Amino acid sequence: MSQINAILIDPAAMTVSPVKVENTLQAYYALLQCSMVEAIRGPVLGTDGIYVDEEFLFTRSACPAPWWHIEGAHMTPARGRGLLVGTDADGDDVDAATPLETILGRLLWLKPTPVKGSAPLWHDMRSGALLRFVETELRFQRVGPRAGAPVRH
Fold first, then answer.
1. Mean per-residue pLDDT pooled into runs of 10, the chain (153 residues)
2. In terms of CB atoms within 10 Å, which end of the chain has fewer, N or C?
3. Looking at the domain assignment, is residue 70 inside a domain?
4. Is the residue at 76 inside a domain?
5. Residue 134 and residue 119: Cα distance in Å, rounded?
6. 12 within a domain of the structure (yes/no)
7. Domain-located, residue 32
8. Among residues 87, 135, 133, 85, which one has the least CA distance to residue 113?
9. What H or E segment, with its residue span, contains residue 87?
């Protein structure tokens, strides 16, 4: 199999970096450190998609690494590593087309903040803003300038 150019999102290290990876599912599993993947596609990614650990999409159990989200990628907050790859007209994985700078500019590192009787708020670890995830629109809405700031209703 051939290698493709991809972008690895590593929340444990809080890094986003270009990688070369064998174009096989087994290589994706090894790089993502998981045994099941889900592909996420969204308007901001064009023909690219992000492979994530499928099990992390359905659990909100404790995880030491931050959560992450790419604004405009039509995704819920994710945990675990993510691998951005391109897709050709036949649906096969190819080199990622989205520039690294685009991902860096849209990526949020997040920490959930429990709220009694409500969905969690999210602390944006770069800006310090307090955010609420709007499930119906798959996007974040700012509700406070800093974690711990009063929430406006």
1. 93 95 96 90 80 73 76 83 93 94 93 83 90 87 67 39
2. C
3. yes
4. yes
5. 10
6. yes
7. yes
8. 133
9. strand 82-87
